[in-house]
Please model this.
Amino acid sequence: MEDLCKWEFLLSGDLRLLRSFSEQRRNVYFNISGGVDYWHDCMNDDFRLSSIYFDEEESPETVWQVGYELTSIFNGICLILDSNHQRLKLNELLHNGVSVLKPEKQMLMAVLGQPDLLVNHMVIKEFEEAKSKDIRLFMLNLATEREDVYLLLKYFDLYHDWVNYYKMYETLEAFSKITEIDIDVDNKLLKAFKNTANNYQFSGIQSRHGFKKTIASNKTPSMDLAEAHKFVADIAKDYLNKVANLVVYYPNQKQFSLPE
Model:
């Protein structure tokens, strides 16, 4: 039987994803375990999330907020890779096996930074293992220190509509200028994307410019919401891949803050 964790969350979500992660080697930053009933020697759907970030804390409320952050980042990268991803959700928090109260979710925005309980060579070791293990864990690891990666993943965890897709695109454009990491954009698709996002005729109440009487004459190609997701997600993948390559070759680039 497994030992009790100081803090662990009960999880719900895509059971196939949860089971595949629970069968992997432990990840210090974002560890999914469970799925086994040791008493009856069979499989079950009881999956848990633990993290070194939780172990650093004493307050249940703080652990809840850190848990929200980690799952939001993880869901963000999963949604970039697959628009049909079923988000992981935190159902309950256990402290040494005992359930604690669930507080209101706060709207906090900040990278978590390197865990205080890890010395530098251990941080490097975890990063190297994440690189070879799973792209989702690799990006989550990057998001704890690079603000551009963190914000991108947070944006993709937002509700997927035209307003937020446009925010994602504008954010990618801005990051590219700041970091000088080029993004590949298909101009034909960009024209259709902007035309749809900006016009009431195509995106209705979500239109960035509201209702316009001139919309009837709009002949520019448009796209549907699924196409918009693929358009923005493909640009995000391109940007994140280039960030990953940069950090692999220049490890000092792993810590990055956007200018104020």
About this structure: The first strand starts at residue 7 and ends at 12. The radius of gyration is 20 Å.
